[in-house]
Amino acid sequence: MARFLKSRKKVKGAAPGSLIFVGKQNIEVPRIRLFIYDRQSIFEKEFQSIDQALKAIDAQKISWLNIDGLHDIDVMRKIGEQFDISPLALDNVLNTGQRSRYFEDKNSSTILTKAVYYDPANNHLSSEQISFVLINQLVISFQEKPGDHFEPIRDRIRNNIGRIRSSQADYLLYTLVDSLVDNYLINIEEIGSRVEELEPRLSDPDKALSNMLFHYKTEITFFRKTIRPLKEVMTRLLRSQTNFLSTESRAYFLELSDLVDHSIEAIDTYFSMVSDQINLYNTNISNRANDVMKVLTIFASIFIPLTFIAGIYGTNFEYLPELHFRYSYFVMWGVMLSVAIGMLLYFKKNRWF
Amino acid sequence: MARFLKSRKKVKGAAPGSLIFVGKQNIEVPRIRLFIYDRQSIFEKEFQSIDQALKAIDAQKISWLNIDGLHDIDVMRKIGEQFDISPLALDNVLNTGQRSRYFEDKNSSTILTKAVYYDPANNHLSSEQISFVLINQLVISFQEKPGDHFEPIRDRIRNNIGRIRSSQADYLLYTLVDSLVDNYLINIEEIGSRVEELEPRLSDPDKALSNMLFHYKTEITFFRKTIRPLKEVMTRLLRSQTNFLSTESRAYFLELSDLVDHSIEAIDTYFSMVSDQINLYNTNISNRANDVMKVLTIFASIFIPLTFIAGIYGTNFEYLPELHFRYSYFVMWGVMLSVAIGMLLYFKKNRWF
Amino acid sequence: MARFLKSRKKVKGAAPGSLIFVGKQNIEVPRIRLFIYDRQSIFEKEFQSIDQALKAIDAQKISWLNIDGLHDIDVMRKIGEQFDISPLALDNVLNTGQRSRYFEDKNSSTILTKAVYYDPANNHLSSEQISFVLINQLVISFQEKPGDHFEPIRDRIRNNIGRIRSSQADYLLYTLVDSLVDNYLINIEEIGSRVEELEPRLSDPDKALSNMLFHYKTEITFFRKTIRPLKEVMTRLLRSQTNFLSTESRAYFLELSDLVDHSIEAIDTYFSMVSDQINLYNTNISNRANDVMKVLTIFASIFIPLTFIAGIYGTNFEYLPELHFRYSYFVMWGVMLSVAIGMLLYFKKNRWF
Amino acid sequence: MARFLKSRKKVKGAAPGSLIFVGKQNIEVPRIRLFIYDRQSIFEKEFQSIDQALKAIDAQKISWLNIDGLHDIDVMRKIGEQFDISPLALDNVLNTGQRSRYFEDKNSSTILTKAVYYDPANNHLSSEQISFVLINQLVISFQEKPGDHFEPIRDRIRNNIGRIRSSQADYLLYTLVDSLVDNYLINIEEIGSRVEELEPRLSDPDKALSNMLFHYKTEITFFRKTIRPLKEVMTRLLRSQTNFLSTESRAYFLELSDLVDHSIEAIDTYFSMVSDQINLYNTNISNRANDVMKVLTIFASIFIPLTFIAGIYGTNFEYLPELHFRYSYFVMWGVMLSVAIGMLLYFKKNRWF
Amino acid sequence: MARFLKSRKKVKGAAPGSLIFVGKQNIEVPRIRLFIYDRQSIFEKEFQSIDQALKAIDAQKISWLNIDGLHDIDVMRKIGEQFDISPLALDNVLNTGQRSRYFEDKNSSTILTKAVYYDPANNHLSSEQISFVLINQLVISFQEKPGDHFEPIRDRIRNNIGRIRSSQADYLLYTLVDSLVDNYLINIEEIGSRVEELEPRLSDPDKALSNMLFHYKTEITFFRKTIRPLKEVMTRLLRSQTNFLSTESRAYFLELSDLVDHSIEAIDTYFSMVSDQINLYNTNISNRANDVMKVLTIFASIFIPLTFIAGIYGTNFEYLPELHFRYSYFVMWGVMLSVAIGMLLYFKKNRWF
């Protein structure tokens, strides 16, 4: 019930910018992990307290501070104070019921976005709000719960694969968002191939199928709603006045923007595919109802008149001349067969079977 | 009947700008409440006459004049004269059948907007026009009837919570509009969760459900119509040339603009969800009709031919040889069972059950 | 038949700008009325000939020349010559089958618009093309037929109510167009409240209702088509380069533009409301068909097997042992009741009633 | 089959700009007609060869060269060489399967457009590509086949009616295109009035009507597809940088642009009207099916139980006590009548008739 | 299953810009063909290794390097190094699951586009990604598999037909893309004519037809999805700042852009045509169901009451007076005929047949 819109009830009447966590607590204590690296060196550590982590950050190098679990307002407050981020920005990070958004502060650029998880067993999509704050050479990522799509990026940093160690923090930011969008495509492909697999079942419609079709439509609608706002995020980010992106990273973000378009187009294609399948399903149901009706009509139209004829000669009238003719019974059979054959020919002519 | 469009009949032919109240009178005497505050001090009073209230306003401090009940034209006229607001602007405030709008005068900025109330007992939405006029450090809010969503804001002023006491009047204006939009989201969530709850009932459709689905569609349509124009209000306000917004408040209004987008998107999502539910409902009705038809066809197709056979041997022909064979009756049963079993196999093969 | 598109047949092949009246003649002789007024004085007269009327116009004051009936080409030609209006502009005024349009000439600004009349007895909308030409302090209004929505404006001029006598001709133009748009809203409200009243009848659908719903849809479509182009008129007029509008009147026309938006939105709302009602109607028809089918199936499925059983014992076989058992008849009743009760329980379980 | 998209097969692989005729040859030898005129004089002649025609053109006067039949590539080539028109432009003129388009060359402006012909006997629309090339004071018009809508224009030139003889070649171009658009409106009116006439037949739906409705929808779709691109033609032409239009003609083309909008809006209105009629048709079919079902259900539900009762007393059990009571037969009738009346009351209560 | 979205799974987590082939390997060893030409000379050769091919390129002349088969990453890497193309651009070429795109690098312009192949036997569309990289006077084309639409262009180069040998590399690029778009139109025409041919079959709907209609809808949807992004490609290419197009070629690309619009419009027309056919199919199915129902109702309504009457006189009551009247049997026939004729007249009156 909470999937399409997260409850804002508890924030009702609170002052804007007062830090309030909106969402479900998924972890007992926030997990704080820090990467500090440059071309030569790399430092990776998990901290128990935010104060220690903040102290460890080295402004000369690129830092990536990842926080799993948003319920501890204190962590947020300290980060805000340390880097002079406005409470409004942090409040957005804490409110997990938001659309994907991009906004800037005097010191920081913030991207709110969504990771999408697909549970193949239940055919169920869920999303997690992941926020990125870029402050000079520091990227802070906030996640609702432990577990993410970033492990391959961590490996690339650790093992110095690709350009990541030799690039700036904006490239790291790009890599992180890119891995989320990549994941959209993987999930779209997964759900899409399942939708495409339903195609052959449409010719033999049953109720379970109709429920499944509408279930997929709901999931795809949820997916669309989740990823659509990212288009606007990319546009705003690329049009931003505060040149926080290097020319080089700009090319990567342009690339990413095209990938977002590609994802949205792909999900839209599956949306209309599942809509068409529902229509075909309904057409087939109508066809089948029509077939059932034809069977009924053929049987009823043939046998009801015959039964009537038999009924006539089942009456007990004293004066019923035909009863006494020798061949009446066989004549009756002849009439009945003629009627039946005539009807069958009529139905044949009208291509009922 | 009056919900989707308020009657303008009584204004027909009146000169533009002549102050005429359009709406329903909800209170006997307008209730006039004034807050005057700054960082240090706070003054709160309810006045019997508008003249006293106007006299009490202190241009050095921030004032919030709230008027419940719009039917007293005199109040409007005096406010207009005091602050030199054009009659056209005031006429708009008095006409409660308007869309949300933003417009500026030489001295004042006016926001017409709507508060939405949801009555959970009757599943019924209603709206109230709330207008805000900003003149330098004064915010005047006009409400159609007593009772509003502003009580938490009054508490924040009284108890100096958050930034409100240390900010300017434009921040107060932001806070007031924000509380209305927040309320949209709360109501959308309420109505949305009810719509989501209908999902399981769709597999067993009945007429009460179809009426409920269309009822929700009507309510959501009303909601959409009510909040959609607010998008344009935000755009016009943020593009306004007359820098009445401080840079700081601008950030808050930008935030608010995103919240309005979020609300519109959320209501659109529920709109399409309820439309999909109606489609699923119809599909299930068709499925069920098909099932009913199958039951009928199976019974009729099996028993009508059998009855016919029995009818044949119920005839009273004198010469009906089969009647006199010893095992005729049992042969007839055998034939009948064969027919019935043949039909059942045919239906089974066609997956009718 | 002529409502959605007026016949242009008679103009086929005519040179552009040759004055040709397209429409239906509604009055024998054009009625020519002139108002001349300023703050101090007012002059009102009906003229027999256009020459006299044109002579009476006083360039120092504001003049309003109203002409009912467009079939007299001579009147148009003389006006065109007097004020040097291009034949193209006048040709547009004469062609009553146009969309609402705004265009400018070197001397004049022309607004073609539509008055809408609603006949509540027949639920029928009709429209009349009303054109306004503004030349300095002169407004000329052309109407297709006598009778209009302008009487309250004439009274305001006569009795010096509101700002009209102390404003310029552009304000008069605003007032006239405003009265037409006001009338749209009144008619939308009328037709809309009728549509809203149909709601309760939907739960008991009959054929008269379906015809009524589609009738309303046609009327609302006609209404939409009629008022939609006015949006473009307002945009073009407000963006016009030839500052023919005073700053003051500009504010009024902006207001009017919002009113036009409001009207279009209102008619769109009723359009989608009536579309939804048609859908609900169809859903209810399906529901009802389903109910009818259930009644049939219940009766047929119960009684056809029972009749079959009775038929068995109505056969006249010589050797039919059950016929001779003493309690056979009562056993048959027992079997029949068991079958019937079994079927009813099955239907009950499947929630057929 | 070739109506919605003309075959391009024979051009496959040809170099762009190589002159290739795409279409159906409608005339044996191209018909070449030339008008040369100015205010004072007029010269009109039909030529056998394009060379003679090209020699006859007088650069001091306005010339209109009309060519019926495009299959003679030689004619095109010579015109192209004479006026230095790019092969690409001429290739477009020869390819009759194009959308309406406007493009410019260093010397010439080309408008590709469509004449629409309506065959009322078969309710069939067809289109012909008509291209206009404007080179200084020369207009060349290319038609696919003999017969056009331009005869009234020729008469206006011959008899010096209207402004045509005293205007430039761009006015001639306007007049020609205008006559095509005028013709769209005449055809829309023709087809539209037929669609409006179908309205009363909808209350008594039959299969011929459904085929007719879908036939009209196809024709209107073809019409839309044909005239829609003309909107873009007008926009491009009016925004053209190469001031080939005089200020005066510009006003006429603006007028024409509005007429194109009007046509598109009109055809869209009829498109949605015919769509609504199809929906109403389907609703009425459902209503009727429902009525048929009710008749069936009423008859079956009443008589099947009664037949069952009769069947009971048609059995031949030896011990069937009721058979021997004196008034059993009349009691049976009483029971039967009660059942029938009860059922009828039930159906009446449920408003089945 | 892979048609609508190509699998990206194997790229998950890879660093952006690392060259990874996404697609199906269609050829064992990439086929490398090179054309070098100018006005005077022409050189054409197939190479075994990319190194030799790269060495053979003559910067003074126009070169066209065509590579069939993308799975050999080494080929890509060497090309990238030779011409200093960014890995990001080359990665896009290798990922065959992309939308059509246009992007620029410091040295090169890249167009990703799709060739469409139509298999008439299976009514099946497939697409192949074809990428073009333009670097000064060199065009590199990358194809997924051998076999293409470029053979006529090769002939034009070999035999010096048209402008190709005397134009620059941008003209070659235009010719290549143009041949793909031309092919779209040919395929649209093919599939479109098949859709148009279905029209007459709609009046006699069967299940095979409904499956065929939805099959065509799926194919057309796939086609639309494939060619739609090309519109954006043309827009970006024509708006590109890096004047890589000569003024002359610009005209050709403008032409091409119009052709793309034409293709999209054509496919959209067939999309809505097939949608309309599906609707007509459904309407005809309903009509037919209605006819079947009528036949059933007519038979049942006539014969069920008659059978009831016969049933009455088949009862074995001892005291059943009518049985003993001499003409009872004939009276019964009279009553039955009256009932039957009455019913038939009623159905006739209601136009059931």
Write the topology of this structure.
The structure is a homopentamer of 353-residue chains.
Chain A: E1 31-37, E2 42-47, H1 50-56, E3 62-68, H2 73-83, H3 87-94, E4 101-104, E5 109-119, E6 124-135, E7 138-143, H4 151-158, H5 169-198, H6 207-227, H7 229-239, H8 247-312, H9 328-349
Parallel strand pairs in A: 3-7
Antiparallel strand pairs in A: 1-2, 1-3, 4-5, 5-6, 6-7
Helix pairs in contact in A: 5-6, 5-8, 6-8, 7-8, 8-9
Core attributes:
Methane Monooxygenase Hydroxylase, Chain G, domain 1, alpha+beta, Beta Polymerase, domain 2, 353 residues, 2 domains
Overview of the structural elements:
5 copies of one chain form a homopentamer. In chain A, 52% of the residues lie in helices and 15% in strands. By secondary structure, the first copy, chain A, is an alpha+beta fold. The first copy, chain A, folds into 2 domains: 273 residues, 2-Layer Sandwich (Beta Polymerase, domain 2); 62 residues, Methane Monooxygenase Hydroxylase, Chain G, domain 1 (Up-down Bundle). In chain A, strands 2-1-3-7-6-5-4 form a 7-stranded mixed β-sheet, sandwiched between helices. In chain A, helix 5 packs antiparallel against helix 6. The longest helix of chain A is centred in the C-terminal third of the chain and has 66 residues. The mean pLDDT of chain A is 87. Chains A and E meet through helix 4, helix 5 and helix 8 of A and helix 6, helix 8 and helix 9 of E.
